[in-house]
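Justification of resources, computational component.

The compute hours requested in this renewal are based largely on the per-chain cost of generating structure records like the one below. Each record pairs the submitted sequence with a full C-alpha cell output. That output is archived, and it is also reused by downstream analysis tasks.
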Amino acid sequence: MNFTTVNWTVFIVYLLAMTIILVYCLAELGLGFRYFKAKRKESKHPDITPDFTYYPMVTIQLPLYNELYVVERLIDSVMAFDYPKDKYEVQVLDDSTDESLDIAAKKIQAYQKQGFSIEHIRRPERKGFKAGALQYGLKRAKGDFIAIFDADFIPNPEFLKKTIPWFEEDSIGMVQTKWEHINKKFSLLTRLQAFALDLHFTVEQKGRNYSGFFINFNGTGGIWRKSCIIDAGGWKADTLTEDLDLSYRAQLKGWKFKYLEDVLSPAELPVEINALKSQQFRWNKGGAETAKKMMGDVFKSKIPVKTKFYAASHLLNSTIYVFILIAALLSVPMLIMKNIGFNVDVYRYISGFIIATIAIVLTYFISISLNKQSKWSRLLDYIVIFPLFLSVSLGLSLHNTLAVLRGYSGQKTPFIRTPKFNIINQKGVWKANKYINTKVNWLTMIEGVLALYFLYGIFLGFKFHDFGLMFFHVMAAFGFSFIFFSTVRHTIIAHK
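The structure output for this chain reads:
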C-alpha cells in the first residue's frame, strides 16, 4: 500500500464516520422538533391525568444487590406511598451478600409489624442478575401492575396515583416517568450527567412518544401492566439492558407506552468517575447487545418505515461512540495530510459536516429552552455546560466504544451494579464507599495517552497555521484529560 493509498483510505474512513455522525445528529434534531411540537400542543391542551375510578392491586419490586448506603431510604420512600395499604405489596428482591442484607431485613420486619404487605425475597442463586430477580418476583406477584425502583431512587408518595390512571386504556403496557436529579449540583461530573439525561427524558422520550415511535422503559421509575410483561415473553438476561430488550419486544407485540414528563421520580447520580464508567459500560454494551438481538425483528415487522428508522437510531444509539472515536483518531492524520500535499481539498468535502454540529447544538438548546428554569439560568447552563458535555463525551468515547464492541462480539460480562452513595444536593462524602473500584487499569492509561495525542493535534494546528480542527482538538484534549485525571484522582481518594 503506497502513500497515496493510505491517504485515501484515511480520508474515506473519516468521511464515512462523519457521515454516520451527521445522520445521527439530524435524527436527534428531528426528535427535537417533534418535542417542540409536543410542548406547543401541550401548552394549548395540557396532558391531564385521568380521574381515578378504582384502586387496582400493585406490586412494587425493589431489586437490590449490596446497597448498604441507600436500602433504608428506598424502602421508607415506597412505604410512604399515598395508596391504600391493602392495595399494594412490596417485593424486596434482595441478592445481597453483605451487611445490607440484615439492614433490609430489620427495616422490612418493622413495616410488617405495622401491617404493610412487604416481603423479603431471596433467590436460591443470583442467576440472570437484575432480570432474573425481576422475573423471579413476577411469578409470585399479586398485583396486576408492577412498579420498579432501583436502589438510587426516592419515589414520590403520589407516584401510583399519577401513573395508574393511564392504564385505563387497555392498550397501554407501560408508563415511564422522568428522572429528577437530587444531587445535580454536587459537582461538574453530576451536572454533566444531568445535562445528558435531561436530553433523553425530554427530546428523546417525549419526542418519540408524541410521534408514535418506540420508547423504552428506563429500568426504574416506571410501572408495567403485568399481562404486558408476560405477553412479551418476560424478563430475559441475555443482554445487560433487560429494560430496553423487553420494551422492544412488548411494542413489537402491539403494546403502547406512555411517557409522563411532568411526573418526576427523584434519583441519585453517580458522584464518582469509576461508578459512572461502570454505568456507562453496562448501558452501552447492553445497547449493542439489544440492537444485535432486536434489529432484525424491527425491520421484519409491519410498523411504518419512519417508526423503523427511529427505532433503528434508538437501538444504535450507543454505536455512535464507535464512529466518534474513529473520527477523533483520524482527525490528526487528516490535519497532517491536508498540510503536506494530499491533493484533495479536504475541507471542501467535510465542511458540510458543520451541519452535524449545528444539529446537535439546536437539539440540546431545545431540550433546555422549554423547561421551567428562568430564561437566564437556562442560557447560562447551556453556554457553560454544553461544550463541557461534548468534551467529556469525547473523553468517554474510548471506554464506551470498547463496551459497544464487546456487545456486538457476543462477549459475556457480568451485570456490574453502579455504586450508590446516599448523597443529596451538595452534601455527603463518598470516599469511604466500600463498593468503589480502586484500581487504575490499562484503559485509563490509554485515555491519558489520547489526551497527549490531541494536545499534539493542537500543536500541529499552530505549526501549520491551520485552525479548522482546532476547536475539536481542544475539546478532545480536555475531555480525555478530564476522564484520565478524574479517574486517577478519585482512585487515590478512595484509597485514603
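The longest helix spans residues 3-44. The mean pLDDT is 91.
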